[in-house]
Amino acid sequence: MPDTSQNITPTIVKRKHRVGSDVVFYIVMAGIGLMYIGFLISMLAGDIGYLARSDEANQLMQNWPDWLKPIGRPLVSMARLLEQPEIQYSVKLTLISCLMSSILSVLVAIPIGYLFSRYNFYGKTILEAILYVPIVLPPLVLGISLLVLFQFQPFKQFAPYFVFQIPGVVLAQFMVAAAFSIQMMRATFDQINPRLEQVALTLGCNERQAFSRVCLPQAWHGILTAGTLAWARALGEFGPLLVFAGTTRNKTEVMSVSVFLELSLGRLNDAVAVSLMMVFLAVGVLVLTRIFGLRNPAI
């Protein structure tokens, strides 16, 4: 009897892919995303709608057409607030403190992100967990920790310059914003091929030159993103400021503190107006940064 075992070939059943079978998947994924985005837009629309129904700006809009008043009330409410000296001071301090804290955050995030991306060392896991503490801790707890820290030496001698002072605003914002910048810079360096630095070392560069001339120029986009993220996070910081820097008018008052003070005085309309200013300011900075990054391929 002839051996036919070698002539038997397995039968492969080819299943035809149907495009229609993915429709449910796309609907579910898009639906979840649209629900979240829609909720965010609804929150913003609610703030605008609240100001559009407010009558406090009507005195400044007597000559406006009736159909234009609902649209103009939010803008007039914000413009009216910007005429107040305490709000002007709050906006200026916010812009300056957020800029300083974002610069400090990037300066700290670059070396830490590079070390954690390129090197393995004893205790790295523990240090990584510590770096996440400002992110996972409640902001109020972070402010209490800062306040307690400045009761002990050597920090106690600097307490008069930081506790309930303007430098305390920058420090409180920096402690939270830096944690986000560090994670962003580490992810940035992880995406840069380390072989490029190794080639630079073989060509005569030392570690500093390989970092500054090869790695750092490729990380500019990540640096820009880290700085923007730190700026936006510092803009919305409130808990540590409340405990460590205080809520003193015309002294340590930033825009998030202004919202709290207006609410505490029962002026909900003004609190919503300041909140909208913060939203527009944050969105404007993020959009400009995004446009700047897209127009400059080098970063």
TrEMBL record:
It comes from the Bacteria. InterPro entries: MetI-like (IPR000515), MetI-like_sf (IPR035906), Sulph_transpt2 (IPR005667). SUPFAM superfamilies: MetI-like (SSF161098). GO terms for molecular function: ABC-type sulfate transporter activity. GO terms for cellular component: plasma membrane. Belongs to the binding-protein-dependent transport system permease family. The complex is composed of two ATP-binding proteins (CysA), two transmembrane proteins (CysT and CysW) and a solute-binding protein (CysP). Part of the ABC transporter complex CysAWTP (TC 3.A.1.6.1) involved in sulfate/thiosulfate import. Probably responsible for the translocation of the substrate across the membrane. This is Sulfate transport system permease protein CysW. The lineage of its organism: Bacteria, Pseudomonadati, Planctomycetota, Planctomycetia, Planctomycetales.
